[in-house]
Protein backbone atom coordinates (compact mmCIF):
# COMPACT_ATOMS: atom_id res chain seq x y z
CA UNK A 1 0.00 0.00 0.00
CA UNK A 2 1.36 3.43 -0.92
CA UNK A 3 0.10 6.92 -0.26
CA UNK A 4 0.53 9.50 -2.99
CA UNK A 5 0.37 13.16 -1.92
CA UNK A 6 0.40 15.81 -4.65
CA UNK A 7 0.59 19.19 -2.95
CA UNK A 8 0.24 21.53 -4.58
CA UNK A 9 -1.15 20.23 -7.83
CA UNK A 10 0.36 22.77 -10.16
CA UNK A 11 -1.08 24.25 -13.37
CA UNK A 12 -4.46 24.61 -11.69
CA UNK A 13 -5.53 27.90 -10.23
CA UNK A 14 -4.97 28.15 -6.49
CA UNK A 15 -3.71 25.68 -3.91
CA UNK A 16 -5.06 22.19 -4.32
CA UNK A 17 -3.85 18.97 -2.72
CA UNK A 18 -4.74 15.44 -3.71
CA UNK A 19 -4.02 12.36 -1.63
CA UNK A 20 -4.50 8.86 -2.94
CA UNK A 21 -4.04 5.51 -1.23
CA UNK A 22 -2.86 2.96 -3.80
CA UNK A 23 -3.06 -0.81 -3.34
CA UNK A 24 -1.77 -3.20 -6.02
CA UNK A 25 -1.49 -0.32 -8.46
CA UNK A 26 -5.11 0.82 -8.04
CA UNK A 27 -6.38 3.86 -6.09
CA UNK A 28 -8.53 2.71 -3.15
CA UNK A 29 -9.13 6.03 -1.39
CA UNK A 30 -8.82 9.64 -2.52
CA UNK A 31 -8.97 13.02 -0.81
CA UNK A 32 -9.30 16.33 -2.65
CA UNK A 33 -8.39 19.35 -0.49
CA UNK A 34 -8.57 23.11 -0.97
CA UNK A 35 -5.57 24.42 1.00
CA UNK A 36 -6.33 28.10 1.28
CA UNK A 37 -8.88 30.06 3.27
CA UNK A 38 -10.26 33.35 1.94
CA UNK A 39 -13.42 35.19 3.16
CA UNK A 40 -15.21 36.94 0.38
CA UNK A 41 -18.72 36.00 1.46
CA UNK A 42 -18.18 37.43 4.95
CA UNK A 43 -16.71 40.68 3.57
CA UNK A 44 -20.08 41.47 1.99
CA UNK A 45 -22.07 41.47 5.23
CA UNK A 46 -23.50 44.88 6.24
CA UNK A 47 -22.44 46.55 2.99
CA UNK A 48 -24.56 48.13 0.28
CA UNK A 49 -25.85 45.06 -1.62
CA UNK A 50 -24.80 46.63 -4.94
CA UNK A 51 -21.14 46.30 -3.81
CA UNK A 52 -21.53 42.54 -4.27
CA UNK A 53 -21.33 42.77 -8.07
CA UNK A 54 -17.90 44.46 -7.72
CA UNK A 55 -16.45 42.60 -4.69
CA UNK A 56 -17.39 39.03 -5.70
CA UNK A 57 -15.44 39.45 -8.94
CA UNK A 58 -12.29 39.45 -6.71
CA UNK A 59 -13.03 35.80 -5.96
CA UNK A 60 -11.19 35.01 -9.16
CA UNK A 61 -9.37 36.69 -12.05
CA UNK A 62 -10.34 33.99 -14.54
CA UNK A 63 -14.10 34.03 -14.13
CA UNK A 64 -14.91 37.45 -12.60
CA UNK A 65 -17.64 38.01 -15.19
CA UNK A 66 -19.41 34.89 -13.90
CA UNK A 67 -19.38 36.10 -10.29
CA UNK A 68 -20.36 39.65 -11.25
CA UNK A 69 -23.26 38.29 -13.25
CA UNK A 70 -24.39 35.79 -10.59
CA UNK A 71 -24.43 38.66 -8.07
CA UNK A 72 -26.37 40.81 -10.54
CA UNK A 73 -28.96 38.07 -11.13
CA UNK A 74 -29.39 37.74 -7.35
CA UNK A 75 -29.65 41.53 -6.96
CA UNK A 76 -32.11 41.73 -9.89
CA UNK A 77 -34.42 39.51 -7.86
CA UNK A 78 -33.80 41.27 -4.52
CA UNK A 79 -34.53 44.66 -6.10
CA UNK A 80 -37.51 43.29 -8.03
CA UNK A 81 -36.08 44.21 -11.45
CA UNK A 82 -35.60 40.59 -12.59
CA UNK A 83 -38.46 40.61 -15.11
CA UNK A 84 -37.54 44.02 -16.57
CA UNK A 85 -34.08 43.48 -18.04
CA UNK A 86 -34.05 45.04 -21.52
CA UNK A 87 -33.04 43.04 -24.58
CA UNK A 88 -29.84 45.07 -24.81
CA UNK A 89 -29.07 44.37 -21.15
CA UNK A 90 -29.72 40.64 -21.58
CA UNK A 91 -27.68 40.36 -24.79
CA UNK A 92 -24.76 42.40 -23.44
CA UNK A 93 -24.61 40.12 -20.38
CA UNK A 94 -24.51 37.12 -22.74
CA UNK A 95 -21.73 38.64 -24.83
CA UNK A 96 -19.54 39.51 -21.83
CA UNK A 97 -20.05 36.01 -20.43
CA UNK A 98 -19.65 34.31 -23.82
CA UNK A 99 -16.33 36.04 -24.54
CA UNK A 100 -15.18 35.00 -21.07
CA UNK A 101 -16.04 31.35 -21.77
CA UNK A 102 -13.82 31.56 -24.85
CA UNK A 103 -10.84 33.05 -22.96
CA UNK A 104 -11.20 30.62 -20.06
CA UNK A 105 -11.46 27.48 -22.21
CA UNK A 106 -8.48 28.45 -24.41
CA UNK A 107 -6.45 29.15 -21.25
CA UNK A 108 -7.42 25.81 -19.79
CA UNK A 109 -6.65 23.61 -22.77
CA UNK A 110 -3.34 25.17 -23.74
CA UNK A 111 -1.77 26.73 -20.64
CA UNK A 112 -3.22 24.48 -17.93
CA UNK A 113 -3.69 21.06 -19.53
CA UNK A 114 -2.01 20.58 -22.95
CA UNK A 115 1.46 19.94 -21.50
CA UNK A 116 0.05 16.81 -19.86
CA UNK A 117 0.02 15.42 -23.42
CA UNK A 118 2.44 17.59 -25.44
CA UNK A 119 6.20 17.29 -24.89
CA UNK A 120 7.71 20.77 -24.88
CA UNK A 121 11.22 19.22 -24.84
CA UNK A 122 10.68 18.34 -28.52
CA UNK A 123 11.71 21.96 -29.19
CA UNK A 124 15.19 21.43 -27.65
CA UNK A 125 16.89 21.00 -31.04
CA UNK A 126 14.44 23.08 -33.10
CA UNK A 127 16.03 24.35 -36.32
CA UNK A 128 13.03 26.01 -38.06
CA UNK A 129 12.57 29.73 -38.46
CA UNK A 130 9.69 30.43 -36.03
CA UNK A 131 10.97 33.10 -33.60
CA UNK A 132 8.62 31.98 -30.78
CA UNK A 133 9.77 28.36 -31.02
CA UNK A 134 13.39 29.54 -31.16
CA UNK A 135 12.74 31.40 -27.88
CA UNK A 136 11.40 28.19 -26.34
CA UNK A 137 14.47 26.29 -27.59
CA UNK A 138 16.76 28.96 -26.02
CA UNK A 139 14.72 28.79 -22.82
CA UNK A 140 15.18 25.02 -22.60
CA UNK A 141 18.92 25.41 -23.39
CA UNK A 142 19.29 27.59 -20.26
CA UNK A 143 18.74 24.39 -18.30
CA UNK A 144 15.34 24.70 -16.73
CA UNK A 145 11.79 24.10 -17.89
CA UNK A 146 10.21 26.73 -15.70
CA UNK A 147 6.48 26.96 -16.39
CA UNK A 148 6.44 23.70 -18.36
CA UNK A 149 6.83 21.33 -15.38
CA UNK A 150 5.71 18.86 -14.20
CA UNK A 151 6.45 16.61 -17.16
CA UNK A 152 5.58 12.98 -17.75
CA UNK A 153 8.62 11.30 -19.30
CA UNK A 154 7.56 7.89 -20.52
CA UNK A 155 4.04 8.84 -21.53
CA UNK A 156 4.30 11.48 -24.25
CA UNK A 157 2.78 10.03 -27.40
CA UNK A 158 2.83 12.70 -30.14
CA UNK A 159 5.47 12.68 -32.88
CA UNK A 160 8.22 15.29 -32.74
CA UNK A 161 6.57 17.38 -35.50
CA UNK A 162 3.18 17.17 -33.73
CA UNK A 163 4.74 18.24 -30.44
CA UNK A 164 6.45 21.22 -32.10
CA UNK A 165 3.22 22.29 -33.85
CA UNK A 166 1.28 21.99 -30.59
CA UNK A 167 3.90 24.06 -28.70
CA UNK A 168 3.58 26.78 -31.33
CA UNK A 169 -0.21 26.74 -30.70
CA UNK A 170 0.51 26.98 -26.97
CA UNK A 171 2.36 30.23 -27.63
CA UNK A 172 -0.34 31.46 -30.02
CA UNK A 173 -2.96 30.69 -27.37
CA UNK A 174 -1.32 33.26 -25.06
CA UNK A 175 -2.00 35.93 -27.68
CA UNK A 176 -5.50 34.57 -28.27
CA UNK A 177 -6.25 34.81 -24.59
CA UNK A 178 -5.17 38.46 -24.61
CA UNK A 179 -7.48 39.01 -27.59
CA UNK A 180 -10.32 37.28 -25.74
CA UNK A 181 -9.75 39.53 -22.70
CA UNK A 182 -10.05 42.53 -25.03
CA UNK A 183 -13.27 41.03 -26.39
CA UNK A 184 -14.72 40.77 -22.87
CA UNK A 185 -13.61 44.35 -22.16
CA UNK A 186 -15.38 45.81 -25.22
CA UNK A 187 -18.65 45.74 -23.27
CA UNK A 188 -17.30 44.79 -19.82
CA UNK A 189 -15.21 47.95 -19.44
CA UNK A 190 -12.09 46.04 -18.38
CA UNK A 191 -10.91 42.50 -17.77
CA UNK A 192 -10.41 41.04 -15.28
CA UNK A 193 -13.00 42.62 -13.00
CA UNK A 194 -15.62 44.17 -15.25
CA UNK A 195 -17.18 47.47 -14.34
CA UNK A 196 -20.31 47.43 -16.48
CA UNK A 197 -22.12 44.41 -14.99
CA UNK A 198 -24.74 45.69 -12.55
CA UNK A 199 -28.15 44.83 -11.15
CA UNK A 200 -30.75 45.96 -13.69
CA UNK A 201 -28.60 45.17 -16.76
CA UNK A 202 -25.34 46.55 -18.10
CA UNK A 203 -24.03 50.14 -18.04
CA UNK A 204 -22.21 49.87 -21.41
CA UNK A 205 -24.00 51.34 -24.44
CA UNK A 206 -24.01 49.11 -27.54
CA UNK A 207 -22.67 51.54 -30.17
CA UNK A 208 -22.01 50.41 -33.74
CA UNK A 209 -18.24 50.77 -33.34
CA UNK A 210 -18.27 48.59 -30.21
CA UNK A 211 -20.36 45.94 -31.94
CA UNK A 212 -17.83 45.92 -34.81
CA UNK A 213 -14.90 45.81 -32.33
CA UNK A 214 -16.49 42.80 -30.60
CA UNK A 215 -17.27 40.83 -33.77
CA UNK A 216 -13.86 41.55 -35.37
CA UNK A 217 -12.12 40.04 -32.34
CA UNK A 218 -14.53 37.11 -32.05
CA UNK A 219 -13.89 36.25 -35.75
CA UNK A 220 -10.17 35.88 -35.02
CA UNK A 221 -10.91 33.72 -31.99
CA UNK A 222 -13.18 31.48 -34.05
CA UNK A 223 -10.40 31.10 -36.61
CA UNK A 224 -8.06 29.91 -33.80
CA UNK A 225 -10.70 27.54 -32.40
CA UNK A 226 -11.25 26.00 -35.86
CA UNK A 227 -7.65 25.82 -36.97
CA UNK A 228 -5.88 24.93 -33.68
CA UNK A 229 -8.05 24.19 -30.61
CA UNK A 230 -10.46 21.62 -32.06
CA UNK A 231 -7.83 19.82 -34.21
CA UNK A 232 -5.42 19.70 -31.23
CA UNK A 233 -8.05 18.20 -28.92
CA UNK A 234 -8.83 15.58 -31.58
CA UNK A 235 -5.13 14.82 -32.04
CA UNK A 236 -4.66 14.35 -28.29
CA UNK A 237 -7.81 12.20 -28.20
CA UNK A 238 -6.51 9.98 -30.99
CA UNK A 239 -3.14 9.33 -29.29
CA UNK A 240 -4.43 9.04 -25.74
CA UNK A 241 -7.75 7.35 -26.53
CA UNK A 242 -7.46 5.19 -23.37
CA UNK A 243 -8.40 8.42 -21.53
CA UNK A 244 -11.95 7.99 -22.85
CA UNK A 245 -12.06 5.19 -20.27
CA UNK A 246 -10.30 6.94 -17.37
CA UNK A 247 -11.67 9.36 -14.75
CA UNK A 248 -15.42 8.71 -15.03
CA UNK A 249 -16.51 10.23 -11.72
CA UNK A 250 -20.04 10.37 -10.33
CA UNK A 251 -21.82 10.28 -13.72
CA UNK A 252 -24.59 12.60 -12.52
CA UNK A 253 -24.54 16.11 -13.88
CA UNK A 254 -26.09 19.50 -13.28
CA UNK A 255 -26.40 22.62 -15.41
CA UNK A 256 -27.96 25.87 -14.17
CA UNK A 257 -28.23 26.96 -17.79
CA UNK A 258 -26.59 30.03 -19.29
CA UNK A 259 -27.13 32.73 -21.91
CA UNK A 260 -30.65 34.08 -21.35
CA UNK A 261 -32.91 34.10 -24.39
CA UNK A 262 -35.70 35.86 -22.45
CA UNK A 263 -36.08 37.76 -19.17
CA UNK A 264 -38.62 35.62 -17.31
CA UNK A 265 -38.59 36.83 -13.68
CA UNK A 266 -38.17 33.21 -12.56
CA UNK A 267 -34.63 32.07 -13.41
CA UNK A 268 -35.71 28.43 -13.43
CA UNK A 269 -38.25 29.15 -16.19
CA UNK A 270 -35.96 31.22 -18.40
CA UNK A 271 -35.19 29.93 -21.84
CA UNK A 272 -31.42 29.66 -21.92
CA UNK A 273 -29.24 28.82 -24.93
CA UNK A 274 -27.54 26.11 -22.86
CA UNK A 275 -30.37 24.61 -20.82
CA UNK A 276 -30.88 24.00 -17.13
CA UNK A 277 -31.35 20.52 -15.66
CA UNK A 278 -30.06 17.44 -13.87
CA UNK A 279 -28.71 14.80 -16.28
CA UNK A 280 -28.30 11.16 -15.26
CA UNK A 281 -25.81 8.63 -16.64
CA UNK A 282 -28.54 7.15 -18.89
CA UNK A 283 -28.97 10.62 -20.44
CA UNK A 284 -32.35 11.47 -18.87
CA UNK A 285 -32.87 15.07 -17.78
CA UNK A 286 -35.05 16.31 -14.91
CA UNK A 287 -36.00 19.86 -13.93
CA UNK A 288 -33.79 21.74 -11.52
CA UNK A 289 -35.29 22.61 -8.14
CA UNK A 290 -32.95 25.12 -6.43
CA UNK A 291 -34.59 24.36 -3.04
CA UNK A 292 -32.79 21.00 -3.13
CA UNK A 293 -29.34 22.63 -3.08
CA UNK A 294 -27.47 22.41 0.23
CA UNK A 295 -23.88 22.68 1.45
CA UNK A 296 -22.38 20.32 4.02
CA UNK A 297 -19.13 20.82 5.93
CA UNK A 298 -18.63 17.40 7.53
CA UNK A 299 -15.08 17.20 6.07
CA UNK A 300 -14.41 20.95 5.78
CA UNK A 301 -12.67 23.28 8.23
CA UNK A 302 -15.91 25.11 9.11
CA UNK A 303 -18.29 24.93 12.07
CA UNK A 304 -20.87 22.26 11.28
CA UNK A 305 -24.54 23.20 11.46
CA UNK A 306 -25.74 20.33 9.26
CA UNK A 307 -26.75 20.56 5.60
CA UNK A 308 -27.70 24.20 4.93
CA UNK A 309 -29.58 25.82 2.07
CA UNK A 310 -27.48 28.78 0.85
CA UNK A 311 -30.02 31.38 2.06
CA UNK A 312 -29.32 30.10 5.59
CA UNK A 313 -25.69 29.16 4.95
CA UNK A 314 -22.79 30.02 7.30
CA UNK A 315 -19.02 30.29 6.70
CA UNK A 316 -17.34 30.12 10.15
CA UNK A 317 -13.77 28.72 10.02
CA UNK A 318 -12.62 25.97 12.43
CA UNK A 319 -9.10 24.88 11.42
CA UNK A 320 -8.82 22.38 14.30
CA UNK A 321 -11.95 20.39 13.42
CA UNK A 322 -11.29 16.63 13.73
CA UNK A 323 -11.69 14.67 10.50
CA UNK A 324 -11.78 17.76 8.27
CA UNK A 325 -9.34 17.99 5.38
CA UNK A 326 -10.41 20.88 3.13
CA UNK A 327 -11.40 24.54 2.97
CA UNK A 328 -13.92 23.54 0.31
CA UNK A 329 -17.47 22.73 1.38
CA UNK A 330 -19.50 19.80 -0.03
CA UNK A 331 -22.48 21.05 -2.07
CA UNK A 332 -25.20 18.47 -2.69
CA UNK A 333 -28.46 18.36 -4.67
CA UNK A 334 -31.15 16.42 -2.89
CA UNK A 335 -28.26 14.73 -1.09
CA UNK A 336 -26.64 13.68 -4.39
CA UNK A 337 -23.10 14.29 -5.60
CA UNK A 338 -23.16 16.05 -9.00
CA UNK A 339 -20.50 16.94 -11.55
CA UNK A 340 -20.69 20.41 -13.09
CA UNK A 341 -18.87 22.00 -16.02
CA UNK A 342 -18.73 21.98 -19.81
CA UNK A 343 -19.47 18.24 -19.97
CA UNK A 344 -22.61 18.71 -17.85
CA UNK A 345 -23.71 21.60 -20.08
CA UNK A 346 -23.06 19.82 -23.36
CA UNK A 347 -24.95 16.78 -22.04
CA UNK A 348 -27.87 19.07 -21.11
CA UNK A 349 -27.87 20.60 -24.61
CA UNK A 350 -27.54 17.13 -26.15
CA UNK A 351 -30.44 15.67 -24.18
CA UNK A 352 -32.58 18.78 -24.78
CA UNK A 353 -32.23 18.16 -28.53
CA UNK A 354 -29.73 20.82 -29.62
CA UNK A 355 -28.94 19.59 -33.14
CA UNK A 356 -25.57 21.31 -33.42
CA UNK A 357 -24.33 19.87 -30.12
CA UNK A 358 -25.74 16.44 -30.97
CA UNK A 359 -23.95 16.52 -34.32
CA UNK A 360 -20.62 17.53 -32.78
CA UNK A 361 -20.76 15.04 -29.89
CA UNK A 362 -21.88 12.21 -32.17
CA UNK A 363 -19.09 13.21 -34.56
CA UNK A 364 -16.45 12.82 -31.84
CA UNK A 365 -17.91 9.52 -30.57
CA UNK A 366 -18.16 8.20 -34.16
CA UNK A 367 -14.57 9.14 -34.93
CA UNK A 368 -13.37 7.09 -31.95
CA UNK A 369 -15.93 4.32 -32.38
CA UNK A 370 -17.15 4.98 -28.84
CA UNK A 371 -20.52 4.94 -27.06
CA UNK A 372 -21.93 7.72 -24.84
CA UNK A 373 -20.21 6.21 -21.78
CA UNK A 374 -16.91 7.41 -23.24
CA UNK A 375 -18.08 10.96 -22.51
CA UNK A 376 -17.80 10.33 -18.78
CA UNK A 377 -14.03 10.61 -18.86
CA UNK A 378 -10.94 12.82 -19.01
CA UNK A 379 -11.22 13.17 -22.79
CA UNK A 380 -15.01 13.59 -22.65
CA UNK A 381 -14.44 16.73 -20.53
CA UNK A 382 -11.79 18.14 -22.89
CA UNK A 383 -13.97 17.42 -25.95
CA UNK A 384 -17.07 18.99 -24.38
CA UNK A 385 -15.09 22.11 -23.48
CA UNK A 386 -13.77 22.46 -27.05
CA UNK A 387 -17.23 21.91 -28.58
CA UNK A 388 -18.71 24.48 -26.24
CA UNK A 389 -16.01 27.04 -27.10
CA UNK A 390 -16.93 26.70 -30.77
CA UNK A 391 -20.71 26.98 -30.39
CA UNK A 392 -20.57 29.85 -27.89
CA UNK A 393 -18.12 31.88 -30.00
CA UNK A 394 -20.35 31.44 -33.07
CA UNK A 395 -23.48 32.42 -31.11
CA UNK A 396 -21.81 35.54 -29.70
CA UNK A 397 -21.32 36.80 -33.25
CA UNK A 398 -25.00 36.25 -33.97
CA UNK A 399 -26.16 37.86 -30.69
CA UNK A 400 -23.96 40.93 -31.18
CA UNK A 401 -25.93 41.71 -34.33
CA UNK A 402 -29.18 41.67 -32.29
CA UNK A 403 -28.06 44.65 -30.17
CA UNK A 404 -30.01 47.86 -30.72
CA UNK A 405 -27.81 50.98 -30.58
CA UNK A 406 -29.67 53.87 -28.96
CA UNK A 407 -31.97 51.61 -26.90
CA UNK A 408 -31.47 51.25 -23.11
CA UNK A 409 -29.36 48.46 -21.59
CA UNK A 410 -30.16 49.28 -17.93
CA UNK A 411 -33.42 49.40 -15.95
CA UNK A 412 -33.56 51.47 -12.75
CA UNK A 413 -34.96 50.11 -9.44
CA UNK A 414 -35.78 51.08 -5.86
CA UNK A 415 -32.88 50.61 -3.40
CA UNK A 416 -34.78 50.48 -0.12
CA UNK A 417 -35.74 46.81 0.10
CA UNK A 418 -35.95 43.98 2.58
CA UNK A 419 -35.82 40.98 0.36
CA UNK A 420 -33.64 38.24 -0.99
CA UNK A 421 -32.49 36.96 -4.34
CA UNK A 422 -30.91 33.99 -6.07
CA UNK A 423 -28.53 34.26 -9.02
CA UNK A 424 -27.98 31.01 -10.90
CA UNK A 425 -26.14 30.58 -14.16
CA UNK A 426 -23.02 28.90 -15.50
CA UNK A 427 -19.38 29.93 -15.08
CA UNK A 428 -16.87 28.35 -17.52
CA UNK A 429 -16.17 25.64 -14.89
CA UNK A 430 -19.81 24.90 -14.15
CA UNK A 431 -22.94 25.75 -12.20
CA UNK A 432 -22.59 28.92 -10.16
CA UNK A 433 -25.11 30.19 -7.61
CA UNK A 434 -25.11 33.32 -5.46
CA UNK A 435 -27.74 33.90 -2.77
CA UNK A 436 -28.25 37.27 -1.05
CA UNK A 437 -30.44 38.28 1.89
CA UNK A 438 -31.05 42.05 2.10
CA UNK A 439 -32.43 43.79 5.19
CA UNK A 440 -32.99 47.55 5.44
CA UNK A 441 -30.87 48.22 2.37
CA UNK A 442 -27.85 46.23 3.66
CA UNK A 443 -26.56 42.74 2.92
CA UNK A 444 -27.54 40.45 5.78
CA UNK A 445 -26.21 37.17 4.36
CA UNK A 446 -24.37 36.17 1.20
CA UNK A 447 -23.45 32.71 0.00
CA UNK A 448 -21.72 31.64 -3.21
CA UNK A 449 -21.79 27.99 -4.24
CA UNK A 450 -19.20 27.67 -6.95
CA UNK A 451 -18.36 25.12 -9.68
CA UNK A 452 -15.09 23.89 -8.20
CA UNK A 453 -16.84 23.55 -4.84
CA UNK A 454 -19.19 21.03 -6.49
CA UNK A 455 -16.38 19.19 -8.31
CA UNK A 456 -13.50 19.32 -5.79
CA UNK A 457 -15.51 19.19 -2.56
CA UNK A 458 -14.67 16.56 0.08
CA UNK A 459 -16.65 13.61 1.48
CA UNK A 460 -20.08 14.37 2.94
CA UNK A 461 -21.81 13.13 6.11
CA UNK A 462 -23.15 10.06 4.27
CA UNK A 463 -19.61 9.08 3.28
CA UNK A 464 -20.04 10.01 -0.38
CA UNK A 465 -16.76 11.30 -1.87
CA UNK A 466 -16.88 14.36 -4.14
CA UNK A 467 -16.79 14.07 -7.97
CA UNK A 468 -13.01 14.47 -8.37
CA UNK A 469 -12.44 12.00 -5.53
CA UNK A 470 -14.79 9.51 -7.21
CA UNK A 471 -12.94 10.01 -10.52
CA UNK A 472 -9.63 9.09 -8.91
CA UNK A 473 -10.84 6.07 -6.92
CA UNK A 474 -10.37 2.89 -8.99
CA UNK A 475 -7.74 4.42 -11.30
CA UNK A 476 -4.75 2.28 -12.21
CA UNK A 477 -1.49 4.08 -11.44
CA UNK A 478 1.53 2.85 -13.42
CA UNK A 479 4.17 4.63 -11.31
CA UNK A 480 3.30 5.91 -7.84
CA UNK A 481 6.33 8.25 -8.03
CA UNK A 482 4.99 9.89 -11.19
CA UNK A 483 1.18 9.58 -10.95
CA UNK A 484 0.36 11.37 -14.20
CA UNK A 485 -2.98 9.54 -14.53
CA UNK A 486 -4.25 11.28 -11.38
CA UNK A 487 -3.08 14.71 -12.43
CA UNK A 488 -4.62 14.34 -15.88
CA UNK A 489 -7.91 13.37 -14.24
CA UNK A 490 -7.89 16.31 -11.82
CA UNK A 491 -6.98 18.83 -14.52
CA UNK A 492 -9.73 17.59 -16.87
CA UNK A 493 -12.16 19.28 -14.44
CA UNK A 494 -10.24 22.57 -14.75
CA UNK A 495 -10.42 23.13 -10.98
CA UNK A 496 -10.03 26.66 -9.67
CA UNK A 497 -9.27 26.77 -5.98
CA UNK A 498 -9.59 30.56 -5.75
CA UNK A 499 -13.19 30.11 -6.72
CA UNK A 500 -13.78 27.00 -4.66
CA UNK A 501 -12.74 28.43 -1.32
CA UNK A 502 -13.60 32.10 -1.93
CA UNK A 503 -13.77 32.34 1.77
CA UNK A 504 -8.32 35.61 3.44
CA UNK A 505 -8.38 36.17 7.08
CA UNK A 506 -8.60 39.86 7.79
CA UNK A 507 -5.36 39.78 9.80
CA UNK A 508 -3.56 37.28 7.56
CA UNK A 509 -3.17 34.74 10.39
CA UNK A 510 -1.29 31.49 9.87
CA UNK A 511 -4.10 28.98 9.56
CA UNK A 512 -1.97 25.95 9.03
CA UNK A 513 1.31 24.69 7.70
CA UNK A 514 1.19 23.57 4.09
CA UNK A 515 3.31 20.84 2.59
CA UNK A 516 4.89 21.98 -0.67
CA UNK A 517 6.84 19.41 -2.66
NI1 LIG B 1 -11.71 30.78 -10.55
FE1 LIG B 1 -14.72 30.03 -11.51
C1 LIG B 1 -15.20 29.46 -13.16
C2 LIG B 1 -16.40 30.29 -10.86
S1 LIG B 1 -14.61 28.02 -10.79
S2 LIG B 1 -12.59 30.13 -12.25
O1 LIG B 1 -15.34 29.10 -14.18
O2 LIG B 1 -17.42 30.50 -10.37
O3 LIG B 1 -14.90 27.36 -9.29
MG1 LIG C 1 -19.49 29.52 -0.60
From TrEMBL:
<feature type="binding site">
    <location>
        <position position="502"/>
    </location>
    <ligand>
        <name>Mg(2+)</name>
    </ligand>
</feature>
<feature type="binding site">
    <location>
        <position position="41"/>
    </location>
    <ligand>
        <name>Mg(2+)</name>
    </ligand>
</feature>
<feature type="binding site">
    <location>
        <position position="63"/>
    </location>
    <ligand>
        <name>Fe cation</name>
    </ligand>
</feature>
<feature type="binding site">
    <location>
        <position position="63"/>
    </location>
    <ligand>
        <name>Ni(2+)</name>
    </ligand>
</feature>
<keyword id="KW-0460">Magnesium</keyword>
<dbReference type="GO" id="GO:0042597">
    <property type="term" value="C:periplasmic space"/>
</dbReference>
<keyword id="KW-0574">Periplasm</keyword>
<dbReference type="InterPro" id="IPR018194">
    <property type="entry name" value="Ni-dep_hyd_lsu_Ni_BS"/>
</dbReference>
<feature type="binding site">
    <location>
        <position position="496"/>
    </location>
    <ligand>
        <name>Ni(2+)</name>
    </ligand>
</feature>
<keyword id="KW-0560">Oxidoreductase</keyword>
<feature type="binding site">
    <location>
        <position position="499"/>
    </location>
    <ligand>
        <name>Fe cation</name>
    </ligand>
</feature>
<dbReference type="InterPro" id="IPR001501">
    <property type="entry name" value="Ni-dep_hyd_lsu"/>
</dbReference>
<dbReference type="Pfam" id="PF00374">
    <property type="entry name" value="NiFeSe_Hases"/>
</dbReference>
<keyword id="KW-0408">Iron</keyword>
<comment type="similarity">
    <text>Belongs to the [NiFe]/[NiFeSe] hydrogenase large subunit family.</text>
</comment>
<dbReference type="GO" id="GO:0016151">
    <property type="term" value="F:nickel cation binding"/>
</dbReference>
<comment type="subunit">
    <text>Heterodimer of a large and a small subunit.</text>
</comment>
<dbReference type="InterPro" id="IPR050867">
    <property type="entry name" value="NiFe/NiFeSe_hydrgnase_LSU"/>
</dbReference>
<dbReference type="GO" id="GO:0008901">
    <property type="term" value="F:ferredoxin hydrogenase activity"/>
</dbReference>
<keyword id="KW-0533">Nickel</keyword>
<feature type="binding site">
    <location>
        <position position="60"/>
    </location>
    <ligand>
        <name>Ni(2+)</name>
    </ligand>
</feature>
<keyword id="KW-0479">Metal-binding</keyword>
<protein>
    <submittedName>
        <fullName>Hydrogenase large subunit</fullName>
    </submittedName>
</protein>
<dbReference type="InterPro" id="IPR029014">
    <property type="entry name" value="NiFe-Hase_large"/>
</dbReference>
